[in-house]
Write the structure tokens for this entry.
Amino acid sequence: MSEEWRPRHWPPHWPDVTDPAVLAAIAAVPRHLFVPPQYRDQAYEDIPLPIGHGQTISQPYIVALMTQALCLRPDSRVLEIGTGSGYQAAVLAEITPHVWSVETIPELAEAARQRLHGLGYQVAVHVGDGRLGLPEHAPYDAIIVTAAAPDVPPALVAQLGPRGRLVIPVGEGIWDQVLWLIERHGDRLSKQHLADVRFVPLVATDSRPQAEDEATAQIRMQLERLFAHH
Ligand code: SAH
């Protein structure tokens, strides 16, 4: 691929993003091909941009911070919720070939699928309600949610492997969202505050009643305890 698009200063210096694999992934993905043509000249500014359907491509710094928190290895299995433009999925796919992504807006999913495959990224894009995860390919070593949920969906934690990591923005409003890292240590869960953030909402698109299995019900209770004082 032509290197002409890559600005000299890209990625910029982020004091808290130090993982060489993450920085190399950000350097490798041509972000200008993930934004609408009228925003192309701003693609290498460290800002979110509109992608249509009321959605946005995330700020590169937040993409880098979230990716770093997943601690990916070249063989990690990763699930993304909220494909959007496909940019975050491409960054993940620079690190591991095992990436699944769920998007609820069919037009965005189709555009992202074509864009990703056109660039050679083998990301499996599914249309659905990401609050339910993607059970058919679980367990995942890492799950990344790129829309803000009012609560952590227990189904996502249930689909993590025994040492899995979930990175998710939680909060109802635009102004009080917190980016959390939830780690699974066998049967135990822990949470760690990563940053204060602003994401578009994770919307409930599948209103069918979901039967909850025993393991997921256990995780729902654990999550309630984990966030009780927050
Ligand atoms: N990761 C994207 C940014 C996504 S913006 C990128 O790199 O461009 C958040 C996305 O989440 C939007 O595309 C929105 O349609 C999607 N979304 C919102 N609720 C969802 C849900 N319940 N399931 C799956 N995707 C959802």
The helical segments are 20-28, 60-69, 87-93, 106-118, 154-158, 214-226. The chain has a mean pLDDT of 95. The pocket of S-adenosyl-L-homocysteine is lined by residues 55-58, 81-82, 84-85, 87-88, 102-105, 108, 129-131, 146-147, 200, 202-203, 205 (CB under 6 Å).
